[in-house]
## 1
Amino acid sequence: MAGDDEVNHRDRAWAGALTALQSPPVFNGSGITPYVELDRDQWASLAKATPLPMTEQELERISGLGDPIDLAEVDTIYRPLSRLLNLYVAGTGELHKVTSTFLGEQASRTPFVIGVAGSVAVGKSTTARVLREMLARWPDTPRVELVTTDGFLYPNAVLEERGLMARKGFPESYDRRALLRFVAEVKSGAAEVRAPKYDHLTYDILTDDEVVVHRPDVLIVEGLNVLQPARLDDEGRSALAVSDFFDFSIYVDAETPDIKRWYTDRFLSFRHGAFSDPDSFFARFAVVSDEKAVELAGQFWDSINAPNLVENILPTRGRANLVLTKGPDHAVTKVRLRKL
């Protein structure tokens, strides 16, 4: 493990590099942007003061199907991002200390919660898994857990009963109260919190399995709609949103035509993988031709995923603390970090 002098040197180098990139305000026609915008090369320069490289074997284990990512991308984008998040965790810890001193209490710290949002097929799951791996390498955040909001989808039987199967993934297809209660309990410091588990093979909630979170240092919550603002309750009163409990949030962004192409490519890959399992919900698509598969993927995208993106997901992008913008090849081309 590095000595204190080396760690302090890295901290000063990292902070200095980030400060140097605080370019003058950029006017966008409607005022000054609340984000610091860095291109790929500027962001990559921050990695020079950041340790913790990853191996090919580790990356292969956590990368997602249809979302190509290599060690260069991890080094360039996710290594400095892990350091930034590490600094945010440390800063929150210091704030906890002074607050506890002010209140005259000895309460233990609660988990630092990170939300990761974005469209279907944009690669947010891989982003969340890479961050979990990288953050767990820092000595002050060894326990990092990841929960996806898929487990909070209503079971298929409930969706069928409510006529929502064609809107699976839309906000109303989730048990939002259960998700809110889960994150609130984690953030309250509960010793153990349980969440439902989703099976991507059967496309349904597992009735005999669950995710158990044991007060981690960091919890990553990944899902389509995790940055949705609070909605009024049945009596017109303001309610809480899941994002109210986030300490930091990330939105994975890309041009819509690129995401649609990635979705189609992933659908074709699944035909020769997950769909070929007779227990798969989508087994019937394994035998169709490539042409028919492309047609079906386009129909699913245009009727379900595109409307959800436009109506519910994309409007939450401006609520994120950090936006990762991808180019056509999945590589991140730009990073926008909200100013403090």
## 2
Amino acid sequence: MNFFDEVIINVKSGKGGDGCISFYRAKYIPKGGPDGGNGGDGGNIYLLSTHNINSLTKFNYKNCYIAENGENGKNNQRTGKKGTDLIIKIPIGTKVIDIEKKITIAYFKKNDQIFLIAKGGKGGLGNINFKSSINRTPFQNTKGEFGERKRIKLELILIADLSILGLPNTGKSTFLKKISTIKTKIGNYLFTTQKPILGVMKNKFNNSFFLILDVPGIMKGSSMGKGLGLNFIKHFQYCNLLLHFIDISIAYNEKIIMDNINIIHQEIKKNNKKIFLKEQWLVFNKIDLLNNVDYFNLHIKNIMINFKYIKRYYFISSEKNIGIKKLYVDILRYLNL
């Protein structure tokens, strides 16, 4: 199933029911007067944010939402039934744009936020409302008002505490699978991750949770439309920490390592400088595949001189669980969890 973070949908709230024209009739009361009730209001349409959804994919298959109309008024001064409200569930991090007015009308940052996107039409008045001293038999009523119609754009930015980035095949998905609840199929492909993945990471010390985001690998030329990663880089906007993964099993010298780091940095700079300036840690992965770890340790300081804005770096093996615990604890401390 494809991942969608931008969709356009149409919403239409319910029409109000018409007012009723009716006169009370009984065996001994031939002229009982008007008793037509009012129409019921049309159903409203609400947007409700929920943490149980992390994509707008469902809206690609259904993009028109209509609430129930209100019932017409009835005799004996009975008001028609109100139309049932329609609640549309959306992911946290969704921005709602009115396409016609070209303005943002809502933004959902928390769970269970609710917003009235289309108000139902008001029910019409029955003829009981038009009775007066000079008009005892009114044949008047009003029609129910039409509901609101809107064409809106939903834009999703996934909200995570921690995000992972790197070139394809650097072990990001393996790491995410090790430390979070997410279960992904992992293979030796150019793009193991085909869409953004949100994992839930649990703090084992106090049972709190936080979200960790993985996106498809960024490659050289991504800012020119190559690869998948930069299509989703906007989802890094609200995270507090970036983990930049580097596969050191294929890097035999300082230049290759620095070139691989620079590929990511240059692509992000071209796309979004604010994201580039976020707190970033280098994670050198797959150290279990190195023939000479001591040799690499001797050269890491020379490498880091070229990236003075990066404060921390780690050596890990996601596959063999080497260095994972230290990185995990430092993440918790940095996020104040």
